[in-house]
Design goal:
Largest sheet: 7 strands, mixed
Number of domains: 2
Radius of gyration: 21 Å
CATH class of the largest domain: Alpha Beta
Number of helices: 12
Helix content: 25-40%
Shape: globular
Order of helices and strands: EEEHHHEHEHHEHEHEEEHHEEHEEEH
Low-confidence stretches: 1-5
CATH topology of the largest domain: Aspartate Aminotransferase, domain 2
Bound molecules: pyridoxal-5'-phosphate
Strand order of the largest sheet: 4-10-9-8-7-5-6
Mean pLDDT: 96
CATH superfamily of the largest domain: Type I PLP-dependent aspartate aminotransferase-like (Major domain)
């Protein structure tokens, strides 16, 4: 067997239906395959490489730290972890951070925190309100919180203690507030990513905040996809002028180096005590050094403002180019989180996208999702518009 054959997946569990390409190298907004073909990356490894590939600041930080200290243990002090906690809590107006290695682990920490908080208040079955069409991860608790039957099917019995309501529907949640006594928290995404770039009304988060305040519930925001400048602010909830009690981060935090975080403020920041929760790798010096380089770069290059400008350019360009297109229902988004809802099903869209030299994803069967790097040039943004429009023309001309 040729072990360099990228299509040889015999020994990998088939958890993914992989497309027939593998990338050898990255350069900013571009990925390069083994044949030297270049693809414009408008997906960023699903919202991870927000600074683009092979970013020099991150590469330098990781190389230096690898030569100094990769891992010690959370049994001892970790200076870089302290520094990262200081930076993140200051940026978010939060008080304390717990570090882990992925988004699902960040949500797990939030769920455990909410339950422990509930138990200390005397609830025996603390319940968390979650939304339809949400996505929170693939571990048992996070898939149980996720509002997508496909993610859950086959893994029953699900973890109990979640109550599901329609997203962006205050009336539904107010009904729950009147009729359910053991609610301890609400967990939602400020913009649903996997669910198809669903943007709630402007007053949704402020009204949720007010309801949580009046009921003594924790407001927990899953900002794993929306956070870290993606939507044009450091964190998407800042558009709404509110602060959550718990915020979950991962994806872009390490620009590809695995790291997740659970941040908390107020009473939620004082819930965990030694022995309640932990992680061997979480917050190790290598990951924290990478994350500090990411935050420095985002701040120095003012990438939140850049995401806003690029988001406008992309949505305007896409709307102009696709105006009146019978296959397009809507172009929507916030900053560089963009959805193009189609009127037609195009099951092999991501494969066709490769032929057009672009990477994107398809959500909820009909929504093309773009999560391009925040470091995109104006010309690269223009190229995304042209390639996505050509891709949609292609799908409309010969449906799957
Ligand atoms: C990606 C994602 C997760 C899960 O993150 P993993 O690192 O894959 O575990 C959770 N919530 C949201 C909103 C996400 O986008």
């Amino acid at each position: 067997m040729n072990t360099t054959d990228t299509q040889t997946t015999d020994h990998l569990m088939t958890t993914y239906a992989r497309l027939a390409v593998s990338f050898e190298r990255g350069d900013g907004a571009w990925l390069i395959d083994g044949q030297g073909r270049r693809y414009l990356d408008a997906l960023c490894g699903i919202g991870v490489t927000s600074l683009g590939h092979a970013h020099p600041a991150v590469a330098e930080a990781v190389c230096q730290q690898a030569r100094t200290l990769i891992h010690s243990s959370n049994l001892y002090g970790i200076t870089l972890q302290q520094q990262l906690a200081n930076r993140l809590t200051a940026l978010a107006g939060m008080e304390r951070a717990f570090f882990c290695n992925s988004g699902a682990e960040a949500v797990e920490a939030g769920i455990k925190l909410a339950r422990l908080h509930g138990h200390t208040q005397g609830y025996t079955l603390p319940t968390i309100i979650v939304a339809e069409h949400s996505f929170h991860g693939r571990t048992l608790a996070t898939l149980s919180a996720t509002g997508n039957r496909k993610v859950q099917a086959g893994f029953e019995p699900l973890v109990q203690g979640f109550l599901r309501v329609p997203y962006n529907d205050m009336a539904a949640i107010e009904t729950v507030a009147r009729n359910t006594s053991e609610v301890v928290a609400v967990l939602v995404e400020p913009v649903q990513g996997e669910g198809g770039i669903n943007i709630p009304d402007n007053d949704y988060l402020p009204r949720l905040r007010a309801l949580c305040d009046s009921k003594g519930w924790l407001l927990m925001l899953d900002e794993i996809q929306t956070g870290l400048c993606r939507t044009g602010r450091w964190f998407a909830h800042q558009h709404a002028g509110i602060t959550p009690d718990v915020m979950l981060l991962a994806k872009a935090l390490g620009n590809g180096v695995p790291i997740g975080a659970c941040l908390a403020a107020g009473p939620a920041a004082a819930v965990f005590h030694p022995g309640n929760h932990g992680s061997t790798f979480g917050g190790n010096p290598l990951a924290c050094r990478a994350a500090l380089a990411v935050l420095d770069t985002m701040e120095q290059q003012q990438l939140a403002a850049r995401a806003t400008a690029l988001g406008h350019q992309l949505r305007r360009g896409l709307r102009d180019r696709l105006a009146g297109h019978p296959a397009v229902r809507e172009v929507r988004g916030l900053g560089l989180m963009i959805g193009i809802e189609l009127t037609i099903a195009c099951g092999d869209l991501t494969r066709r996208a490769l032929q057009h030299g672009i990477l994107c994803s398809l959500q909820a069967e009909r929504v093309i999702r773009l999560l391009p790097p925040l470091t995109l040039s104006d010309d690269e943004a223009q190229l995304i518009i042209e390639r996505i429009a050509a891709l949609i023309d292609d799908c409309a001309a010969q449906p799957a």
